[in-house]
């Protein structure tokens, strides 16, 4: 084919697409004389002629269908949609997507309608469509069945009416319709379509299914369907559900069910266990302030929170809570020895750190930078006050820790950036941009992002030289830096103070030690691996066991991970 012929064919194809779209727009502008089959055909042509992604085209057509349903489809928009759904299976692969499209468009139209939009026969047509789908005359999955019932508000009386017309001499139409729905529900349960089965029974207000149905859903871990069914059935079934959740130790689900249905007085013990479990989870994440707020001044829960703080070794939190709530006697409680052994944490004095120096003015900053510039390797870390309000802006980075092997400087970034921003920028540039000082961090990409967002006016946080993120070398699957410290140095880090208030001044001594430890431990991990990077010297012609092989490999992986930021 020549170039001219090819260009002509493309031009003709564009003309055809434009013609199809013009016909569609013309037809959609007035549906008075457009049959459901023609409407669906034109809808398909619109869909296949576009070049956009499927989801974008779907949403665009959804809006189009919503608008054209205003344009006098006969005998009314709801009836027109039922007729479309009846013939839609002949369009094969487009059936499922288009059924959701036109139903959702009609649902939106009906929500905004202020007057009835249709003839009374629409319920009969929808009931007939429901029966045709169930018996297999029209091919749709159970999700469309539920949507048809809901959007057209098909009632049991509508089903009865159609069944009577089909089989006029079949006895009580009410019993036949109910039995028909129950049989279909059994079929849905066997195919494990529990949510659809529950929705069907709820829609027709059928309550014959009892405890066995609920237990079946719980055994198959269909908890959302079980909750929906129990809520529909009432308090006895909700109580059974709570008991089953408690037996499975699903305390969060039990708590939600109790609270949502005002069952606190019926399950005081379970409710209290749920609250304690919630506090423990928050304490393990270091969210002590949130945990305290969740107690709602309940003395029993506050005492439990104090015990959790004691168990975690967070004694300043113990003191704080005891003083705030006038608690007595907690120093007589001893943490179990097994717990104490399990919670063996690394201490700052074990790393032979000489001093922690707080830096919040020019002279201290200049001294710190002078010391750090004489180091070949330093550890970096940052802390900021957590923000527990969903969707809110993160707080500014409060402090930056810079550690040598014997000394840790903690810079009050909030105060220094406010008092002497130029000096702070110049001093940190000398460290962070230096190609002769190796800077160690852990998951430091997060800190880089937060520093840039907090202090965008400072150029020192826009570029980093000789930065090594230890997380990229070890990729410790569990426990983060704490787990890595336990693996390399034999003891984990106590992270209970991670989410404390880093904007309070002065910081508590334990906060300072926590912050210092997070930075200086990086140097000791690095030094440990470097010292064990060579196999031990042989004795009497035999080499020592290769216990340091991992360290040997890891040490020579450092170079490939040392980087500058931003890249390129």
UniProtKB/TrEMBL annotation:
<feature type="domain" description="3'-5' exonuclease">
    <location>
        <begin position="356"/>
        <end position="534"/>
    </location>
</feature>
<dbReference type="InterPro" id="IPR002562">
    <property type="entry name" value="3'-5'_exonuclease_dom"/>
</dbReference>
<keyword id="KW-0540">Nuclease</keyword>
<dbReference type="GO" id="GO:0008408">
    <property type="term" value="F:3'-5' exonuclease activity"/>
</dbReference>
<dbReference type="Pfam" id="PF01612">
    <property type="entry name" value="DNA_pol_A_exo1"/>
</dbReference>
<dbReference type="InterPro" id="IPR012337">
    <property type="entry name" value="RNaseH-like_sf"/>
</dbReference>
<dbReference type="InterPro" id="IPR036397">
    <property type="entry name" value="RNaseH_sf"/>
</dbReference>
<dbReference type="GO" id="GO:0003676">
    <property type="term" value="F:nucleic acid binding"/>
</dbReference>
<protein>
    <submittedName>
        <fullName>Exonuclease</fullName>
    </submittedName>
</protein>
<dbReference type="GO" id="GO:0006139">
    <property type="term" value="P:nucleobase-containing compound metabolic process"/>
</dbReference>
<keyword id="KW-0378">Hydrolase</keyword>
<keyword id="KW-0269">Exonuclease</keyword>
<dbReference type="InterPro" id="IPR052408">
    <property type="entry name" value="Exonuclease_MUT-7-like"/>
</dbReference>
